[in-house]
Amino acid sequence: MNRRNLSLSMFALSFSSLPAIAQDSVQYRFEYIAEWSADTHPTTFPSNPHFSGAIGATHNDQLSIWIPGGIATDGIEAMAETGSPTQLSSEVQHAIDVDGTANQFLNLGGINTSPGMRINNFTANSAFPLLSIVSMVAPSPDWFVGIHDINLRPGGVWVRELVFDLYPYDAGTDAGINYVNANIDLTPHIPIVDITDDFPFLGQGRLGTFRITLLSDAACSLADLAQPYETLDFFDVSAFINAFNAQRPSADLDKNGIFDFFDVSAFVNAYSAGCP
User: Fold this and answer.
1) Listed residue (236, 206, 235, 207) closest to 219, CA to CA
2) Is 161 in contact with 214 (CB distance < 8 Å)?
3) Contact 59, 102 (CB under 8 A)
4) Which of 93, 121, 200, 256 could form a disulfide with 43 if both were Cys (CB 3.0 to 4.6 A apart)?
5) Other CB atoms within 10 Å distance of the CB of residue 46
6) Do 143 and 80 form a contact (C-beta atoms < 8 A)?
7) What is the pTM of this model?
8) CA 92, chain centre distance (Å)
9) Cβ(148)–Cβ(168) below 8 Å
10) What is the pLDDT of residues 213-242, one digit of tens each?
């Protein structure tokens, strides 16, 4: 057996004892696409249209950041009325430090001028697979767009891509009915409601979209060489060894035409990361 095959045999013996794992943490790309404009929403359209920073949390099912029909927390009120992330950040930090119901506060950036786009990345953890994000429609009394309690890992498998159409909600903390009304505080607060069918949004379209895309597929696909696909096990190790010995393209993981330690290292790293 030549040195390359001997090296791979040792690799197989040591590596076959490692279990294939699903990733506990993954990276997602977050795309915030704003379509709101004088053309899409001409009724009393304001000057300086923008969206505040998209903020929220990854959390578990013991925490609810917001929900239609619920009462806005102080953090949701501050976000919806002023775009400030400070109070909601404090609420999420309490959930992290005291309650153990959240993993991280997210601040993913806003849209300085609408229409526009903002792209950012975030990490999701299997123990906190739910995602909630909100962003103020600005200027406005207390209107916002958002998603809540989105499960990124249903059935133990990370979702590849999600797209959400964004429609306006009223936080129930200010009685204004137009984009630039003076502050009219509501006490007590009333429930959060969808105002898609209310003035000034009646009969008009969505304000934009959130697109959430898993970024770890590439690493998984490097090591996923044998059926069943999207599961990494010893059959993938065996397939890699056979391809490497035969110098087949599927084992040239760094695509440089040379079969060497760097291909083995790339396979080990991809296998260890697991499939989502």
Assistant:
1) 236
2) yes
3) yes
4) 200
5) 17
6) yes
7) 0.75
8) 17
9) no
10) 888 655 566 677 777 666 777 788 888 888
Token digits for 129? 């697979």
Burial code of 172-195, b = ≥16 C-beta within 10 A, e = fewer? bbbebeebeeeeeebeebeebeeb
Please give the helix or strand (H or E) that residue 169 lies within, else none.
strand 169-170
Domain residue extents for the chain:
3-22+218-273, 25-214
* Backbone angles phi and psi of 114, in degrees to 5: -100, 135
The answer to whether 72 and 25 have CB atoms below 8 angstroms apart is no
Can you tell me which residue has the tokens 């915030």?
Answer: 32
Token pair listed for 133: 């994000």
Answer whether residue 94 shows pLDDT above 90: yes
**CATH code for the structural domain at 25-214:** 2.60.40.2130
Q: Which two tokens stand for residue 218?
A: 């590439």
Closest CA to 196 of 252, 144, 264, 243: 144
Task: Report CA-CA distances (Å) from 209 to 31, 84, 121, 146.
Answer: 8, 21, 16, 10
Maximum distance among all alpha carbons in the chain? 82
CB 276 within 8 A of CB 22: yes
Look at residue 149 in the predicted model and tell me its pLDDT: 98
Tell me which DSSP letter residue 221 carries.
H
Strand, helix or coil at 234?
Answer: helix
With bands split at pLDDT 50, 70 and 90, how would you rate the model's confidence at 175? very high
For the chain, counts of helices (H) and of strands (E): 6, 11
- Report residue 73 as tokens: 């927390």
Phi and psi, residue 203, nearest 5°: 75, 10
